[in-house]
What we know:
Blueprint: E1 12-14, E2 19-23, H1 34-40, E3 45-48, H2 69-82, E4 86-91, H3 93-104, E5 109-115, H4 120-125, H5 129-147, H6 155-162, H7 166-169, H8 172-180, H9 182-193, H10 199-202, E6 209-214, H11 219-231, E7 235-240, H12 247-250, H13 252-274
Parallel strand pairs: 2-3, 2-4, 4-5, 5-6, 6-7
Antiparallel strand pairs: 1-3
Helix pairs in contact: 1-13, 2-3, 5-6, 5-11
Amino acid sequence: MIEDARGRIDYDVCGDGPTIVLVPGSCSTGAAWRPLIAAWKSRFRCVTTSPLGYGSTAERRTPSDPSIRHEADVVEAVMRTAGGPIHLVGHSFGGLVALAVALRNRARLASLALVEAPAAELLRHSGEQPHYRAFREMTDAYFAAFASGKPEAIATMIDFYGGAGTFASWPSRVRAYAVETTAVNILDWASAYEFPLSAAALRSIDLPVLVLWGEASHPAVQRANALLAGCLSQAVSAEIKGAAHFMIASHAEQLSRLIARHVHTAEAKYLSSCV
């Protein structure tokens, strides 16, 4: 645990080798990365954390100030504690936070990996209105259901990402945690929508970047990530066959291989540049 003046921050570390900081998505804690960490068999020094409001990481955003900079502050605190060089990996909302960290350029990064970041504002800025509307219509329905008192309103968002019936298929404890943290997830969406993303800004990220999305994911999510890959000057992208949004659980072996290859290549490049 990191004791920060603005609230505690989840922090855990295991393994040896190049340092990977892993940022999970909404409704998740650092434990979400266990399938990938297990697949790597201690070949990397894996540092996990939880986003604001999840696990033991204290919330510091408010409805009037949901800025993603608060999330970036937390990840940068984790990175300082871990020590660099760091390969930053984010899934879903964690991918958007990782992008914010890279754009701020306040921390020493060796590489970046983004797994289905919900880059809705990049869709809007790029004129991809049908795909942008898909995100907005989903969150409008979800927020309205929550405001009306529907206990499992978050199922709308989960099924948008994973396909119809995804929420119902989850174990009861996982569904319960999602329901319990619905208000936090709504803040996450406020953070995402107020985070401006443009092609010009993304071109300023001078790092090796891996961008991944699922073959079975929602078309709007696929398009947002394809746009990300196209805007990042050093990006390599891949579509994970048969996978949807929650692939860090369902397709851990495939993801672990792709991320490991990316990290090894970027680590060698980073170290050679320091000689």
